[in-house]
Amino acid sequence: MSQNTDSTQHDTVEALRLDRQLCFALYGAANRVTRLYRPLLDALGLTYPQYLAMLVLWEASPRTVGALGEALDLESSTLTPLLKRLEAQGLIARARDPQDERRVIVTLTPTGAALRDRAKAVPEQLLCLLELPLSELGDLRERLKRLAV
Q1: Distance set, CA 128 to CA 29, 36, 42, 109 (Å)
Q2: Rounded to whole angstroms, how far apart are CA atoms 149 and 146?
């Protein structure tokens, strides 16, 4: 076997190492962040996906299920059970759009709107748990947003 073949095999083995994979670094980081969020969100009675839905609704309510799904990059088949659970908790209300029966409008209830005040502390609490400089986190967020497009 030539040295060139050995070098190519070595490069292939190196390229396939788990610790060199972007997907694994993203996976590990996402898992850690989700784990750090869990106790903060448990205190609000929300799961991580429910928190994301509530963030969108706290920005603007009412919204259609379609607009909510677009904002969260979720299919309606994934979003509907999540919304049913939020509705059962009394945080949102769903109703057919009287202008177009095919559309469902999601509105915050007074309880859901009030939860926003309690949730205001979550981002800062998470930053403290991450123990990274704010400037690094902001840069990381912007880079990940570009990657997600």
Answers
A1: 16, 10, 17, 31
A2: 6
Q: Which helix (H) or strand (E) holds 71?
A: helix 65-72
Pairing of strands 63-64, 92-97: unpaired
Cβ atoms 109, 51 nearer than 8 A: no
- Among candidates 137, 68, 70, which has minimal Cα distance to 104? 68
**Domains (range + CATH), the chain:** 21-148 (1.10.10.10)
User: How many residues in total does the chain contain?
Assistant: 149
Per residue in 35-83, pLDDT tens? 999 999 999 999 999 999 999 999 999 999 999 999 999 998 899 999 9
**pTM: predicted TM-score of the whole model, two decimal places:** 0.84
